[in-house]
Design a protein that fits this description.
Blueprint: E1 7-10, H1 11-15, H2 19-31, E2 34-38, H3 44-58, H4 62-65, E3 78-83, E4 89-97, H5 102-107, H6 131-156, E5 173-180, E6 195-200, E7 206-213, E8 218-221, E9 227-229, E10 237-241, H7 243-248, E11 258-261, E12 268-275, E13 282-283, E14 300-301, H8 302-306, H9 309-317, H10 320-328
Parallel strand pairs: 1-2
Antiparallel strand pairs: 2-10, 3-4, 4-5, 5-12, 6-11, 7-10, 7-12, 8-9, 8-11, 13-14
Helix pairs in contact: 2-6, 3-6
């Protein structure tokens, strides 16, 4: 691995104490915040089954997919399309919440004071009755991988895994599939400069991402501001450090800033499982990572960063008709140019 490559980490070897793998993990966590992992324990047949099923849903005629939009206009439930200001499709998204209802969340152990988040239901396609079960299985496997990688980061930072206040289940997660279309609107030779997903770092502790496609549209940003592609490696999953883990480690672990550029005539599919601890967790720099100086970050209750995320999102990105749909509790379907 050169200093400008994405680290490919063998999870099983790292857990067995392989010094080389652990050293590479530490370097990647502090310098980029993005790794690729193999021998990660998530069955490939499960990865393939989920993504093949959801790709088939996203390939349905638009008239059928409109029925999969959130009935309440929630931007993180069901299907929606994301056009630019000219109506040209930049992104198609299918989002799945951890629970289908407040009752399900409370049955899993979430206190009732937090369960209202799940009053906006998931939208499961009638075209594939088996998708829900497969999606849940893949979600659980990815969340389990996130916790294992957190344990490895604890190891390379010389702290006990228990230092991270993960708490007992249920942990807070969200699950999104992004389908990036062809983009042939730019000038010749300029298509790869089009951003289909703006640069950002996730607000999770860790994000487990799968990418499927024929071009390396996902890019990670180094501390000096330069970008590097995240290659398509058969069997590998990507794990991003989120800003929450950066806060826990007082900046020791770098949040994985990333973006997606267009691939011209090529499409790309990805999914992300965004894993957090319990929503009643106080997120603050932990004692082993705070020296004589003051912590770099103030404490924050995780719930306070979650409960207003729809309003926060709409305040920045929402179009007037989308905001109106949310206020009225009705579906929002963006207009797309022919």
């Amino acid at each position: 691995m050169t200093d400008r490559e994405i680290a490919l980490i063998d999870v099983a070897a790292a857990e067995a104490g392989d010094a080389v793998e652990l050293a590479r993990l530490r370097a990647a966590g502090t310098e980029l915040g993005i790794i690729q992992v193999v021998n990660h324990g998530v069955p490939q047949e499960l990865v393939d089954d989920f993504h093949t099923r959801v790709a088939a849903v996203l390939a349905l005629p638009r008239a059928e997919k409109v029925e999969l939009a959130s009935p309440t206009g929630h931007p993180y439930r069901g299907w929606r399309q994301w056009p630019d200001d000219f109506g040209r499709l930049e992104l198609e998204r299918y989002s799945i919440s951890r629970y289908d209802s407040p009752a399900e969340a409370e049955a899993a152990g979430l206190p009732a004071e937090y369960s209202g988040e799940y009053a906006h239901p998931n939208v499961w396609p009638a075209q594939d009755p088996g998708l829900r079960e497969v999606a849940r299985a893949y979600h659980d496997a990815a969340a389990g991988l996130a916790q294992r990688v957190l344990g490895l980061y604890a190891r390379v930072l010389d702290v006990a895994p228990e230092v991270f206040p993960v708490g007992a289940a249920p942990h807070h997660t969200s699950f999104t599939v992004n389908n990036y279309p062809t983009w042939t609107y730019g000038e010749a030779g300029d298509e790869d400069q089009k951003l289909l997903l703006l640069e950002h770092a996730d607000g999770s502790a860790l994000t487990v991402l799968h990418q499927r496609g024929d071009y390396e549209g996902l890019q990670g940003q180094w501390a000096d501001g330069s970008w590097t592609p995240v290659p398509i490696v058969p069997g590998a999953l990507q794990v991003f450090t989120g800003s929450l883990l950066t806060r826990w480690t007082n900046g020791k672990l770098r949040a994985g800033r990333h973006r997606v550029v267009a691939g011209g005539t090529v499409t790309r599919l990805s999914s992300g499982v965004f894993w957090h601890p319990r929503v009643d967790t106080i997120i603050e720099p932990l004692a082993p990572f705070v020296g004589a100086d003051e912590p770099e970050y103030d404490p924050v209750l995780l719930w306070d960063t979650v409960r207003n995320r729809v309003e926060d999102y709409l305040a920045v990105f929402g179009r007037p008709e989308q905001v109106a749909a949310w206020r009225d509790g009705r579906p929002y379907v963006a207009a797309i140019a022919e």
